């Protein structure tokens, strides 16, 4: 409710400013005009035709990031030597701009969904591996030591003790990574081309269609919110299951 109230206030101010003519429609179209454009795009199928490739690349990239970041985060958390070697490179991966990485991916992989998905994976990788390491390093070591005294192997400790205790932090990173993957998909399409929302954004920009640009931003934001909500539901169910609670 607070978020809905804040959103309503923002839209109300937006409508008042545009209705009063304080800002021209070329710079800031009214919310009604943007909503009308979105409804037209939904009715004609334009929205889904451009959303589908972007969502596909974002989800594929998030899956790749999870498959790489989770095992790496576990290894970093359990090995000081590996942490000293790998952690600087993990941080370095976030200092290179996406627009600089995208042309390299085109040269190495080519065009299409795969290089965009790889770019999404690069964006989503950092929060997932970081929260995995932080979650495993912040465990109550008394519990882990008791498991060791009971003769639990390293794998048993990871599966039955460490993973359930660190699950909230790890899955929070996954949630953030999935949302960032959506951003990576749009940026990838802007730089590398494609058939997704980044392409529609480029077409709207080149046509000086401000309402179209706002509509694309709204579609991307709504899609990211839906992905965030779905991952949140999966996160709650996974945490309850891992921690032995009823889901």
UniProtKB/TrEMBL annotation:
Q: Which UniProt keywords apply?
A: Cell membrane, Membrane, Transmembrane, Transmembrane helix, Transport
A Pfam family hit:
BPD_transp_1
Looking at the UniProt entry, the stretches that span the membrane are 55-77, 89-110, 116-136, 166-191, 211-234
Q: What residues does the ABC transmembrane type-1 domain cover?
A: 51-235
Task: Tell me the InterPro entries matching this sequence.
Answer: MetI-like (IPR000515), MetI-like_sf (IPR035906)
Question: Per the UniProt entry, what are the Gene Ontology biological process annotations, in alphabetical order?
Answer: transmembrane transport
Q: Where does the UniProt annotation locate this protein?
A: Cell membrane
Is Transmembrane one of the keywords?
yes
One GO cellular component term of this record is: plasma membrane
Q: Which residues form the signal peptide?
A: none
Query: Its principal location?
Result: membrane
Membrane topology classification? Multi-pass membrane protein
Family per similarity comment:
Belongs to the binding-protein-dependent transport system permease family.
- Name recorded for this polypeptide: ABC transmembrane type-1 domain-containing protein
Query: What species does this protein belong to?
Result: Tessaracoccus flavescens
């Amino acid at each position: 409710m607070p978020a809905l109230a804040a959103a309503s206030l923002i839209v109300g101010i937006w409508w008042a400013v545009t209705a009063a003519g304080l800002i021209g429609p070329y710079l800031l179209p009214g919310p009604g005009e943007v909503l009308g454009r979105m409804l037209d795009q939904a009715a004609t199928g334009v929205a889904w035709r451009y959303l589908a490739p972007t969502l596909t690349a974002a989800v594929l990239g998030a899956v790749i990031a999870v498959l790489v970041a989770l095992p790496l985060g576990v290894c970093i958390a359990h090995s000081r030597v590996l942490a000293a070697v790998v952690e600087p490179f993990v941080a370095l991966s976030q200092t290179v701009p996406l627009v600089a990485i995208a042309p390299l991916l085109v040269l190495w992989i080519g065009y299409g969904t795969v290089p965009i998905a790889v770019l999404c994976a690069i964006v989503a990788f950092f929060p997932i591996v970081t929260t995995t390491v932080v979650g495993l390093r912040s465990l109550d070591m008394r519990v882990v030591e008791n498991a060791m005294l009971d003769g639990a192997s390293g794998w048993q400790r990871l599966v039955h003790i460490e993973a359930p205790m660190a699950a909230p932090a790890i899955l929070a990173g996954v949630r953030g990574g999935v949302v960032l993957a959506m951003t990576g998909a749009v940026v990838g399409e802007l730089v590398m081309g494609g058939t997704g929302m980044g392409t529609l954004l480029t077409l709207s920009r080149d046509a000086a269609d401000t309402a179209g640009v706002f509509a694309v931003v709204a579609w991307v934001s709504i899609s990211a919110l839906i992905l965030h909500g779905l991952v949140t539901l999966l996160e709650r169910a996974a945490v309850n299951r891992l921690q032995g609670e009823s889901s």
